[in-house]
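Hi Y.,

Following your request, here is the sequence exactly as I used it, all 422 residues.
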Amino acid sequence: MVERRNFLKMGGLAILSTRSMARALASGQVATDKIEDARLKQWLAAITPFGPEDYQKRWQKASGLISGLGLGGLFVEPGPSLQYFTGVNWWRSERTFGVILFPEREPVWICSAFELDRAREMIPDSQEIRTWEENESPYRLLGQTVRDYARLKKIGLEPSTRSFIVYGLKKDVPWLELADGSPVSDGCRGIKSNQEIACLEAANRITKLAYRQAFSRIRAGMTQEELAGFIREAHAGFGVSGSGGPSFGPASSFPHGSRKRKNLEEGDVILVDGGCRVEGYSSDVTRTLVFGRASDRHKKIWEVVRRAQLAALKACRPGVACEDVDRAARKVIEDAGFGPGYKFFSHRLGHGIGLEGHEYPYLVQGNKLRIEVGMTFSNEPGVYLPGEFGLRIEDCMVVTAEGARMMGGMEAVSLEEPFASD
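Below is the corresponding structure, written out as C-alpha cells. Let me know if you'd prefer a different format.
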C-alpha cells in the first residue's frame, strides 16, 4: 500500500510530468521514433501550460454567469472544475477545502488551518485563504465569507460537490440559499479554447499511434492483459500514462468489457477502448478489428457502424440539438436492421470530453441543448450482438463554425485498417 503522504507527492510529480511532456516531445528531447509524426508535433508545438491569464479569462466568464443566474458566488471543491478555474490540484478528503468564485473580485479559499502552508504553495499571494481549526465548522466559515463578499446570500455549488458538504451547509448556515452551480461550471468548461483543443488533438493522436504500435504485436494465444500492457507501454513511449481495455470474442458484445478472460483465437473480434491525458485533457478512442480473417458479417456490420459515425459527424453543427446528432447515427443503425432504439446500439452516441473523460454535454436522446462552436464530444456508435461480438468505432470531435471534425486524425478505414495513414 502506498503511504498517504507519498501518494500525494506522487500525484504532484505526475502533474509536473504531464506538463513537461508536451515541451519535451515538441523539442525532440524524448527519444522515440513516434515524435516524427508531423501532425502530433504540430499540435504539441501549440501547447503551453495554462497560466494566470487563462484562469482570469475563465473567472470573467464565470462571473457573468454567476451574476446572470442571480447567485452571490460559486463554491468549487477539489476536482476537475477546481483545476479548470484555478490550476490547483488538491485531493478530496473529509476536510472541506475549496474556492468561492465571486463576481468582480479575486477568489477566496476555504482551507483547514493545518494545511495552510501547503495551500499557500499553490495559491497566488493575491488570493485570500480563510482557515478553520479542527474544532470549528468550515461551513460557518464559508457562510461568513459569503456574507462578507456577496451581494446575494445565494450560492451555487459545483455539481460534483459531495453530499456531506451540502448537509453541513444546510445545518450550520440555514440562512444561506444553495443552488445548482452546473450552469456556471458547465457553461464555462463545455466550450473549449484553442489551447484546450490543441491538448485534446495531441492526446487523441498519441492514443491512436500507441494503439497502432500495440496492434502490431497481436498474436494467437495472447491474453487481454498482455495487449493492455503493450498499449500502456506504447503510451509511455510518449511520456504519458495511457491505457486501453481490450475485449476478445464474445466479451466485445459488452460495451465496457466482461469479467471473463480468454486467450485470443482465430476469428475473434478485438475491441479496444482507452486513452491518455495531455495537460490534463483526455483522449477517448475505440477501435475494433478481427484476428485473422473477418467474416462477411463482421465487415457488413463494421460498415454500418462507420456510416453511423460519419452521419453523426455530418449532423454535428452549431445550432443543432445534441439529441439530433445521436438520432442521425441511430437511424443508420436502425435502417440496417439493428433496432429499434437501444436494442443493439445500447448506449448514447457520445459524451463531452475535456478534463474528464466523460463530461457535459452529452449526445443523447432528450438533450435539446444547442451545440456551440468549441464543444468537444466522443462519437462512438456501436452494434452489440449478445453472445457473439460487438463492433464500435470511437473518435473525438470538435465543433467549428463550418461543422465538426475528428480530433487526432487517423480515422478508421476498415476492419483490416483501423487507422488511416494521415
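The mean pLDDT is 91.

Thanks again,
Q.
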